[in-house]
Write a structure and sequence with these properties.
The protein is of the alpha/beta class. The protein contains 12 helices and 12 strands. The strands form 3 sheets. The chain has a 5-stranded parallel β-sheet, with helices on both faces. A 5-stranded antiparallel β-sheet has the order 9-8-7-6-10. The protein has a two-stranded antiparallel ribbon with strand order 3-4. Helix 2 links the parallel strand 1 and strand 2.
Length: 343
């Protein structure tokens, strides 16, 4: 599967990022997803001066909404422009948010059928009482073969049809997880554009992320107060924040019997919102050390984690992301992380 790219000049009024200290922890290279022709680009990440323009998305069936691809290509265009201006390596990176647990969103895809109408394919829904398993643990199951068959029978005839189906069949197989299928197929699609896909659920990323998540728990009180004050200011100005703020919830999720679960401040410790499991901070430090894969950032903390781990100068966001990225300033400030420019 290949992309045919037509370049579009960046408008001059675009807010431009500023350089920062470059370089990437070499241990994180293990989380870069292998794909044909992407090896040399991954090697560029070893340069101590390298910077990144990032974007990302939670996994979606057959690579998800079309704007996922548009965001990735926009990141590549901006990275190329910054590299030209700054005369230093700038690599576009796509953050595969495999921790996401929204199966209803990830399990559906809509495409244009041969008759010109829209066709939707979907995996069977989760039972209402099922754990909220993150997509990097969620198997596709045998039903993916039925959805692929539906896609194959409905796609219009063209010179790209068989190549497209072969590309998807390489990754969307019953034994794969939703995140693995998404990441593999997307990495192959984007590799010719020089876009590196990084697996946020990879053990190397989880280990690197754990200390920042513990800091977010240690500062849960000040973070909640700062976000609550921000929400008050927004409402006074006549705006409603895109996500709940200042409600006593931490910015960290814990995977347990109920699946991915928000940690709520509970006295001098924490409790999982749905599972009602109470944990002291010291217990959570132990989990971070022994089982870092169980911890993940929520929607406000995720971009902060990304900026802490990657030499990011800009993040290419969709409209929904822009709405909550406007709320993240207190999180960057409290945790002492440089903020990347949302574009």
């Amino acid at each position: 599967m290949t992309l045919r790219l037509v370049s579009t000049p960046l408008p001059m009024e675009l807010r431009m990022p500023v350089p920062r200290q470059g370089g990437l922890d070499p241990a994180l290279l293990a989380a870069c997803i292998s794909a044909p022709r992407i090896g040399p680009t991954i090697e560029r990440l070893r340069d101590p001066s390298v910077l990144a323009v990032t974007t990302g998305q939670q996994p979606g069936l057959f690579t998800g909404p079309l704007y996922t691809i548009y965001k990735a290509l926009s990141a590549a265009a901006l990275a190329a422009e910054l590299e030209r201006r700054w005369q230093r390596p700038v690599v576009p990176i796509f953050w595969v948010a495999g921790d996401d647990h929204d199966f209803a969103e990830a399990s559906r895809a809509t495409w244009i059928a041969g008759d010109g109408g829209l066709m939707t394919g979907a995996l069977p829904p989760r039972p209402p009482d099922a754990p909220l398993t993150p997509m990097y643990r969620q198997p596709l199951g045998a039903a993916i073969e039925d959805v692929l068959r539906q896609l194959g029978e409905s796609l219009p005839a063209s010179e790209f049809r068989e190549a497209t189906l072969d590309w998807l069949r390489r990754y969307w197989v019953p034994d794969a997880t939703v995140a693995a299928a998404f990441a593999g197929s997307l990495a192959e699609l984007l590799a010719p554009a020089g876009i590196v896909c990084i697996e946020s659920s990879h053990p190397a990323v989880k280990r690197a992320t754990a200390p920042l998540l513990i800091r977010a728990l240690e500062q849960a009180g000040p973070l909640d107060a700062a976000l609550g004050a921000l929400a008050t200011g927004w409402r006074a100005a006549g705006h409603e924040p895109a996500v709940a703020l200042g409600d006593g919830a931490s910015l960290v999720m814990l995977e347990g019997p109920a699946g991915r679960d928000r940690l709520i401040v509970d006295g001098d410790g924490f409790a999982s919102r749905r599972g009602r499991e109470r944990l002291e901070l010291q217990e959570l430090r132990g989990i971070a050390a022994r089982e870092p894969e169980r911890l993940s950032p929520n929607v406000l903390l995720r971009p902060v984690v990304e900026s802490a781990l990657l030499p990011t100068v800009a993040y290419v966001a969709g409209p929904g992301e822009m709405a909550y990225l406007e709320l993240t300033s207190p999180v960057y400030d409290e945790l002492g992380v440089a903020r990347q420019l949302p574009v």
